[in-house]
Specification:
The chain has 359 residues and is an alpha+beta fold. The protein has helices at 11-15, 27-35, 47-51, 69-88, 101-125, 129-167, 176-200, 204-231, 235-261, and strands spanning 264-270, 277-279, 284-288, 295-296, 308-313, 316-321, 326-327, 330-331, 334-337, 342-345, 348-354. Strand 5 and strand 6 (316-321) form a beta hairpin. The chain is elongated and about 70 Å long.
Length: 359
């Protein structure tokens, strides 16, 4: 017999053994929930499962339509333009050269309210009332000024375009040449909406995409205005539908252009904002529980007011963490992000994506 002491393993010891790849793989998410004093957020899915997916699983990422820019900007444009019509229509004179206040105010008010809608739409989706109030106030003020300025410019351009249309043989509003003339004139209203969208987002590039999309959408909406009026019986109804379509088309186009031209972004794959895409426009994008952060993360006490930043340095994207952050399941204080990296912050999970690195 050996003199070595015997090793005794009790049932209590066996219960403490964890299988490989089990609890360890979910440690980041569990730790974040425990720090917050909350149970794991099963309501929003298992973030640890999201972290285990590769970049090839992009098609499986949540794609909620109401989180897409084309949807909430389109809805904002539709509601803003429709509200402007509803305010001005009772005082609108349905004759050529009408001088009632409804005739004078309808286009400036349409511009102001679609600008307001574009200014607050993203903040509402992100559930940040403070940011929505700040951006909405700025959008109303700038939108009102641009509404009057661009209305004057649009009148001049429209008159010139109509003259060309008549010179080419257009003799009534059933002629598509006059539809195009209206579309050309109205692109300035869409440009105003795009400018304000970039202004409240504090991004020149966002403004450029917004103007490009706004011009496309407003041009389409303007060209469809007269055909709608001809198809519908009643001037009030045709104006209501025409302005609503104009506002919606402008917002939808801004959303599509912004999405098509983005080059670096974070796709939320886990958490309350799953399906939302945060396009990285700024040199430094702030992330935290403050509503004024560029990426506002709510409903998680483990997230600091200023939790992290995402910085664009030339062709590289750097993540700097001031609180617990996991990249590909590993805790990081600073990291260069690569296409397909999974980032975990509390109950939130993000896929980092770069257009130039997609196959």
């Amino acid at each position: 017999m050996s003199d070595q002491p015997r090793i005794k393993i009790t049932f209590d010891d066996l219960e403490k053994v964890e299988p490989l790849g089990g609890a360890a793989s979910s440690a980041p998410a569990a730790a974040a929930s425990a720090a917050a004093g909350e149970a794991p957020a099963s309501k929003y899915g298992n973030i640890a499962e999201v972290a285990s997916k590769s970049a090839a699983a992009h098609d499986e990422l949540p794609q909620r339509f109401y989180m897409q820019g084309w949807f909430y900007l389109g809805a904002a444009g539709l509601l803003g333009a429709t509200l402007a019509w509803a305010i001005c229509e009772p005082a609108f004179e349905d004759i050529e050269g009408g001088e009632r206040w409804g005739n004078l105010m309808i286009f400036p008010l349409v511009v102001m309210l679609i600008c307001f809608g574009f200014g607050i739409a993203e903040s509402i989706v992100e559930r940040s009332p403070k940011k929505a109030a700040q951006r909405g106030g700025l959008a109303l003020l700038v939108g009102l000024v641009l509404g009057f300025v661009f209305n004057s410019v649009a009148d001049v351009v429209y008159a010139i375009a109509v003259s060309f249309a008549f010179a080419l043989g257009a003799d009534s509003f059933e002629n598509p040449g006059l539809w195009v003339a209206r579309g050309i004139g109205w692109i300035f209203f869409g440009a105003a909406g795009g400018l304000v969208y970039g202004l409240v987002g504090a991004s020149v590039k966002k403004g450029q995409y917004g103007v490009f999309g706004g011009v496309i959408g407003a041009g389409i909406g303007g060209m469809l205005f007269d055909p709608i009026a001809l198809a519908l019986d009643g001037a009030e109804v045709s104006r209501a539908v025409g302005f609503a379509l104009f506002g919606a088309a402008t917002g939808v186009a801004i959303g599509f252009v912004e999405s098509a031209l983005k080059d670096r972004w974070l796709h939320v794959s886990g958490g309350p904002l799953a399906g939302k895409q945060f396009i990285l426009y700024k040199p430094v994008t702030t992330v935290g529980s403050l509503q004024t952060c560029d990426i506002y993360l709510f409903k998680d006490k483990a997230i600091l007011p200023d939790h992290a930043t995402v910085e664009l340095r030339g062709g590289r994207t750097w993540l700097r963490a001031f609180g617990p952050v996991f990249v590909a399941g590993q805790p990081k204080q600073e990291a260069i992000l690569n296409h397909g990296d999974v980032i975990q912050i509390g109950r939130y999970a993000f896929f980092f994506q770069e257009k130039q690195r997609q196959d």
